Amino acid sequence: MIECLERSDRLRLMKFVCSFAWADLEIRPEEREFIAGMVNRLTLDEEDREKVQGWLELPPSPESIDPTQVPIAHRKVFIDAIRGVISADGEVSPEELESFRLFQDLVR
């Protein structure tokens, strides 16, 4: 289903995934690998890949991350992707867990 997302939803998904990777203020190599895998699965074009790369250098601004903008039909995809990135390094920090739970509450 992830591959069926429209371009705007693919970018929104990657922005959320990158912001959650930053939840503990550090992006680990395993999280970068997870994100690279998602970029490949989503077959993002070069422009969109550069946007994702930018979000790995500097986190997306908090005001650009709005859980209410996640389409209802795609909420499970977003939750699964976020769960994947926060657990990619084998550790889920308290900050990551708290952010994830808040996100789940806001999209349900």
Account of the 3D structure:
With 108 residues, the chain is mostly helical. It has one domain. The chain has helices spanning 7-21, 29-41, 46-57, 75-87, 94-107. Helix 1 runs antiparallel to helix 2. It starts with 6 loop residues before the first helix and ends with a helix. The mean pLDDT is 94.
Order of helices and strands: HHHHH
Overall pLDDT: 94
In what range is the share of β-strand residues?
under 5%
Integer tally of domains: 1
Q: What descriptors fit this protein?
A:
single chain; 108 residues; mainly alpha
Fold blueprint:
Layout lengths: L6 H15 L7 H13 L4 H12 L17 H13 L6 H14 L1
Summarize the structure.
The chain is an all-alpha fold and 108 residues long. Helix content is 62%, strand content 0%.
